[in-house]
Amino acid sequence: MLADDMEPLPAPVVRPRHVLVLDLSKSMLAPLPDPSGVQGTRRKIEVARTAVYRILENAEATGAFFGLVTFTDSARVAVPLTEIRHENLPYIESLISMLTPSGRSAIWDGIALGADLLRRPTGEVAGTLALVTDGWDNASSRFRAPASEPLTPESSRRLDVVPHILPNSSQLTLRIIGIGSGSERDKGVDSEQMNGLVEQLRGRANAGGIAAEVTYQEVVTSTDLFSQMVNSFIDVGYEGARPLEDLHPDELAEHAARAAKALKAPGEHATISQLRNRRDLPSAPAETGAGALPADVDVLELQGGTLPPHLTERYGPLGEVVEAFVARDYASAMNRLFRAQSLLPALSRYYWEARIHYARGEVVEAARSLLHAWVEADRLPAEARGRIGRRLALLQSRIQNDSETETLVRFMDETQHRLERKEPELGRLLEGIFEKLLELRTTYQLARVGGTDQSLMQGAIQHENSVEEIFGLLQDIRLRNTQRDTVADGALDFMEICLAEMR
Questions:
Q1: CATH 3.40.50.410 boundaries in the chain
Q2: What pLDDT digit, counting tens, does each position of 349-372 carry?
Q3: Does domain 14-229 match CATH 3.40.50.410?
Q4: For the stretch 421-434, what's the b/e string if a residue is b when 16 or more beta carbons lie within 10 angstroms of its beta carbon?
């Protein structure tokens, strides 16, 4: 076979690479204020540990690589840069639970070691590096930040940390989160030191054409610290839902035919139109300063009706709301939600208001809260809006008693959730086909009208061509599914039946 005739090899999957550099000096045992009074007094290390749990869960869900560097009098690698998987997550979490602050702060040695974890064999640093500290550097023995300390015989023996973090050809995102704002030692992060480091890194990147994004943010409350490290929108499933792979072929066909009804009658299924229209909304402009990070979706899978362990440790007050909700203590869930409202992203708060109202049979109140949640979802970046939109659409279809729409959206949401861990590329391809199925709704109406009008005939032809195109894409994905993933196979069968109903 000639080389020109050979099929090109698929591009390798590029996994995200994240390293967290965490201050474990003795000052991290100090409490952080909580103005709302909801969480009480929490130590800095407790808030940081909670956020690390959440970061690890996100890494496991996306197949990302994660590493953790801690520093006290010296810096050390607590977790090597590792692909976070279901099998190794409990072991890594147990390591995090044993982190205990002591000693002083070797900040520059810590951030340099974090950069080393992200260093490629060719020398450049690539990935995302986050530094969380509440102190002043007073223990680094290998590195210095020349912008913030005078050159002395002792400091001159240490290396400049700036070129070490950011060598030529690097592709680095560096986020520095400073706790407090200390003009005196032991009162908070040294703002002058950190701002000087940021300016030097930005100057080096600009002068050398290096791809780098460097940000510095100070936080003064436990809420701000958790928000800057990670924030989330979490959800639990509905009663009676069965995994796609558990359905008998006849049941799968029945579900697919029901879902096709939502595609064939747009006027009777407004939720689908709402979901489709929001997909192309522009991203909201980014706000400057402190504030919650973009929300992400976590779907908590109940095992025998019970929640995953350490829920409150991972999710804080929102975890307490979910615990009460799953226990069907709806009054307690609403009370906890009200007390935690200042700590939660507005989207999460409105969504859980709607879930609780609906569970209590308060349909009007649920619809009102869900409307507010849709407004908040429109503020999200475009890449996050699709997944969260499907969670909102599921609840809306339940409120409206629209079983056809619920079946369609549940199918795609479940497929994406299950494939994003095992076969993320297949998940992305299937999501693209789902969007094409939504687009078929308009041409389907033209194809059903019939007649000799030229525009109607063109619409019918366009519809049939689109159906054939999607059938071809489905067959291509079957060929890609070399591992014979049962979720992917079930999704492809489901889509083919939907498509056949659309002819």
A1: 14-229
A2: 999 999 999 999 999 999 999 999
A3: yes
A4: eebbebbebbbebb
